[in-house]
Amino acid sequence: MATYQIQKGFDLKIAGKAEAKIADAPEPVLVAVDTAEFPGIKPKALVQEGDRVKTGQPLFLDKLDRERMFCAPATGVVKQVVFGERRFLQRVVIEVAAKEEFHQGERLDVRAATREQAIVALERSGLWPLVRQRPLGTIADPAKVPVAIYVNGMDTEPLAADPAFATQGRKVDLQAGVDLLKKLTGGKVHLTLQAGAGHQDELRSLQGVELHEFSGPHPSGLVGTHISRIQPLRITEVAWYLKAQEVALLGEWLRTGRYPAKRVVAVAGSMAPSRQYFRIRQGAALATLSGHRPVQGDVRVINGTVLSGMATDPTGFLGFYNHTVTFIPEGTGQRDLFGWALPHFGKLSASRAVFSWLAPRREYEVDARLNGGHRPIVNIGAWESVTPLDIHPAYLVRAIQANDLEEAVKLGLLEVTEEDVALCTVVDPCKIDVGEVIRSGLELYVKEG
After folding, report:
1. Any idea which architecture 19-26+260-329 has in CATH?
2. Residue 291 scores a pLDDT above 90
3. Tens of pLDDT, residues 349-361
4. What is the DSSP-derived secondary structure letter of residue 234?
5. pLDDT single digits (tens) 56-83
6. Cα(283)–Cα(249) distance, integer angstroms
7. N or C: which end of the chain has fewer CB within 10 A?
8. Apex CA 426: angle with CA 381 and CA 382, to 5°?
9. Domain coordinates of the chain in residue numbers?
10. Three-state SS for 93?
11. What pTM, to 2 d.p., does this model score?
């Protein structure tokens, strides 16, 4: 077992952490699957409005790989099939039925199956999108053999769900999932955990994985940081990655033969209706977490964490990859008297621009205000101070904005995704969305082949 100490980074101490207890959320009235969560696919609808579907039944496929299915997370009637420009499928909404029925797919015997058979079975099951790859941060390409697969058993993002707590009591499923992952790579399966953290015994006891511990501030819990320390990728190599709870879902599918439709989600934030963990159906309406009533008032609802999540309408739906739902004040209409001219002892800041560093608090209540306006890039080293990767983010962003793809690749474009540079956006005095720039660079790389 190797231990890595991350020095660069910053922990956002935000109020509203989820309490370590789990309850079953009520069944949702509606569930939905959004195609926008799966960049790089070309979806083809397999159902129409009014069709009755079973849990695990394919809703749409990827025209670039017709074995790759995206399945219904509940039994019910297709209420809405939403198309955008050029008839591009955007969302499928299902009205949940009282009685659940499961679509019977093919069973997989991991010990007897070949790698190709395992991949086809996973794609047809609707669970292949759980497996993602670096570089690009998209759904894994089954045609490429990864040099390693990373199972992330830690999360240092603010208010994020604890993977070890969310998977307690699921060792059988976790081990089955790991056994399946070993079939998919000729390299190692790496398990990353937080050094010194408790309640990780089940994860530590998994067989067939190489254990690594990380400590230090965020982003020490991101897979990009783990890859850069454990086995940096060469230009022609790819690595696959999943979160610990996603591995448990693979194991549950192997054990039961049914599509695993339930997730454990942490509800957090200073405006959260209930700060705790819930077992909730994939794609459920977020109003399910607040008694089937959308959250009212000046509230920002985030599918995910404040760093890498997406702001969503209170009437929206739980994202496919999200294990955290965050509620913080929107801050609409609020303005601080005298703005920057006051010392602001109670504000969270990564620098000494405000005086809260003299009397640091255990937690800060933050809102969604930008607190400033967009400005041209001024390189004062703020981005580099929170980036432990061996890249120069300021020069990388400039290369992307200049459409200099060759220079961007040399500067580390393929080593990062949006989540790796989220802290750059937080500490940036110029208010630039660095993640948005990085994603545009990755899309340009894919477009140029």
Report:
1. Roll (3.10)
2. no
3. 887 777 676 677 7
4. P
5. 999 999 999 999 999 999 999 999 999 9
6. 15
7. C
8. 5
9. 2-15+115-256, 19-26+260-329, 30-96, 370-447
10. strand
11. 0.94
